[in-house]
Amino acid sequence: MKSLILKDLYNIGHNAKSMLLILLVFAIGLIMVSGVESYIISSGVLCSMMIVTTFTFDDHCKWSKYALVMPICKKDIVKAKFIVLIIFCIAGICVGTIFGVAGGVAMHKMALSMEGIVTMLFMGFVGLIVSVIFGSMSIPLVFKYGAEKGRMLLLISFAVPLGICFMVYEILMMLGVKITDQLIFTILCASPLIAAIWIYTMYRISCRIFYKQEING
Predict the structure, then answer these.
(1) Does residue 72 register a pLDDT over 80?
(2) SS3 state at 62
(3) Cβ atoms 104, 110 nearer than 8 A
(4) Which helix (H) or strand (E) holds 100?
(5) What percent of the chain is predicted at pLDDT more than 70?
(6) Residue 206's closest CA among 62, 98, 79?
(7) Could you tell me the CA-to-CA distances from 185 to 114, 166, 181 in Å, in that order?
(8) Shortest CA distance to 149 belongs to which of 79, 86, 34, 56?
(9) SS3 of 165-184
(10) What is the pLDDT of residue 205?
């Protein structure tokens, strides 16, 4: 398991500087327009997309075919991708929070106070949940259709969770449930559990897709 994770981290390592530059340039524009909060969440989502790049490297070296003949548990191959995704999201949120706070203070978009820092840390938590949910949707798509088509289908990985949230919102409105601060706080408290259930579902789907590929291969 550890070797599978390190493989993807080493392969993506040379892209780290490019991603840092992208996040830095992105900070200059987005913080001015949308604020620090949006930038932190966007940083996590951007870094979650790097999981697709690891599949691209695997395709170039035909890793999947090689892995299938090795004494490696097939579930571990899938599990490693999700762990790497979480690492990418955490890294993106950490860098985004640092750049966001620095840029926000420099652009006078936030005050460097305890309250402001706590707020940004909270937004980092929200961004981590959002980016992991979005990123985990892309993994079964790439297992199913490959890295190149998976990139084009990334929009689906964003649209599906957003669509589900919109449907839940509409149902609550139909039932006459008011969206209060207390309800939002309750949802945020439950978000780690929601994310865990979502990730596990995507993991099981990915395992099934990968298993079928093994049988068909």
Answers:
(1) no
(2) coil
(3) yes
(4) helix 74-106
(5) 82
(6) 79
(7) 20, 18, 6
(8) 56
(9) HHHHHHHHHHCCCCCCHHHH
(10) 93
Dihedral sign, Cα of residue 134, residue 159, residue 140, residue 208: positive
Residue pointed to by tokens 């790049």: 53
d(CA 71, CA 49): 29
How confident is the model at residue 157, as a pLDDT? Answer: 63
Nearest Cα neighbor of 15 from 39, 40, 47 is: 47
Where residue 177 falls among pLDDT bands split at 50, 70, 90? low
Give me 158's structure tokens.
Answer: 């964003």
Residue whose pair of structure tokens reads 């892309």 in the numeric block: 138
DSSP annotation of 217 reads -
Rounded CA separation 49/52 (Å): 6
DSSP 26: H
Give the separation between CA 101 and CA 1, rounded to whole angstroms.
35
